[in-house]
Amino acid sequence: MSFYRSPYEAYPFLCDADDDxxxxxxxxxxxxxxxxxxxxxxxxxxxxxxxxxxxxxxxYHMNPTLRTSFTVTAEETARLAGAVERLQAESSVHxxxxxxxxxxxxxxxxxxxxxxxxxxxxxxxxxxxxxxxEGLLDLSNLLSGYFxxxxxxxxxxxxxxxxxxxxxxxx
Length: 171
Hints:
Layout: H1 22-41, H2 46-62, H3 74-90, H4 103-127, H5 134-157
Helix pairs in contact: 1-2, 1-4, 3-5, 4-5
């Protein structure tokens, strides 16, 4: 099929076939990294701001994986897992909470969902016959947990009490 391609095309893979999810993955990781930058602008704690800058770079290292290779190291994945464990240990909240609170926590909740969308897209890519490194799936899942726990921490720092959520459909 032949169709018009703008000489101003913002990204060379935007015209990829609709069943080729690599560009979708790249756009989603770009959106995720950009939102990490937004969250970082809302953070006043230097240690967390530095950590978010590192996470932003990590997401960009994930970006070309489906088209090239997975370059995130085992040490980087372990570092993110350690951050998740640290945030879990600092939290007294267990179970589901409403995604609300201070602005930075709400941004972190949006990032949590975007990371889950990333995992879902990777599974769709696998189901269509694509290859996905296990480490990429691990990292994507870790990001979701990281942003959830970070949202809890940011609300705690701001003195915002979490609001528990109890589903009527799941027990």
